[in-house]
Design goal:
This protein has about 260 residues and is of the alpha/beta class. The protein has 12 helices and 8 strands. The protein has an 8-stranded parallel beta barrel, surrounded by 5 helices. The relative contact order is 0.16. The structure holds 2-phosphoglycolic acid. 2-phosphoglycolic acid binds next to β8.
Length: about 260
């Protein structure tokens, strides 16, 4: 059994003071959560405040993106080395907002995965189909293409640190979560594909999150699925009290 991982993706929300207030409220929740890894992914500018407020807590820190070079003439970008310097352990890569609003393609995402693994950061690779792709029966083809282009050729040592978030684009921020059986079937397909690409050991260790309109009311439907090992949470992670309710609901469901 791999450990569940529940991550807060704050997107472009919260100043340093707001991040600090949230983390001060949230930091002791992990004491009741022995069986679940908890992760907060603030915007870059709030990493330092979140880190300070989480000091001594087992709640981990993640970033929402990175650039693949260590340093150089890349105005506006942030490198893996800089993230590590800020105490970051995980990094979200290929989120659908990066793919669709900022034009990140499969090649860009592969470079970012490689940079994260090279530096010992744990990537959360986000994949998922659009509404149109789903309607035309292309879901597994899309997931397969996104996984192959991001992961093919890496060794299974790197994969030990990998998390894949299955986030159907049509479910993100819409209040319309996937049906649990659809999330399970996508997660099962993801695990099989990772097994083909990276081997049996990597597939067994892989943690697969479901993301897209996860809330305190539905989290248990997803964390109880055999191939789903956690959630990537956007909107429902912005208020400390409701995010605490969400992780408590997951804990009750898995009995940790
Ligand atoms: P949501 O976002 O929970 O607001 O749907 C999830 C995500 O984009 O990671």
């Amino acid at each position: 059994m791999v450990k569940l991982i529940i991550a807060a993706n704050w997107k472009m929300h919260k100043t340093g003071a707001e991040a600090s207030a949230f983390c001060t409220r949230f930091r002791d929740v992990d004491k009741r959560m022995a069986g679940i890894d908890l992760l907060i992914c603030p915007p870059y500018t709030a990493l330092a405040s979140a880190r300070a407020a989480l000091e001594g807590s087992a709640v981990k820190l993640g970033a929402q993106n990175l650039f693949w070079a260590d340093k150089g003439a890349y105005t506006g970008e942030i490198s893996p080395v800089m993230l590590i310097d800020q105490g970051v352990e995980y990094v979200i890569i290929g989120h659908s907002e990066r793919r669709h609003i900022f034009g990140e393609d499969d090649d860009t995402i592969r470079k970012k995965i490689e940079a994260a693994l090279t530096h010992g950061l744990k990537p959360i690779l986000c994949i998922g189909e659009t509404e149109a792709e789903r309607a035309s029966g292309e879901t597994t083809a899309v997931l397969e293409r996104q996984l192959e282009s991001a992961l093919e050729g890496f060794d299974d040592g790197g994969a030990r640190n990998l998390v894949v978030a299955y986030e159907p684009v049509w479910a993100i921020g819409t209040g319309k979560a996937a049906l649990p059986q659809d999330a399970e079937s996508a997660a099962g397909f993801i695990r099989q594909t990772v097994k083909r690409l990276l081997g049996t050991a990597a597939a067994g260790l892989l943690r697969i999150q479901y993301g897209g309109s996860v809330s305190a009311a539905n989290i248990a439907d997803f964390t109880s699925l055999p191939d789903v090992n956690g959630a990537l949470v956007g909107g429902a992670s912005l208020e400390a009290d409701s995010f605490i309710d969400l992780v408590e609901a997951a804990r009750e469901a898995v009995g940790s």
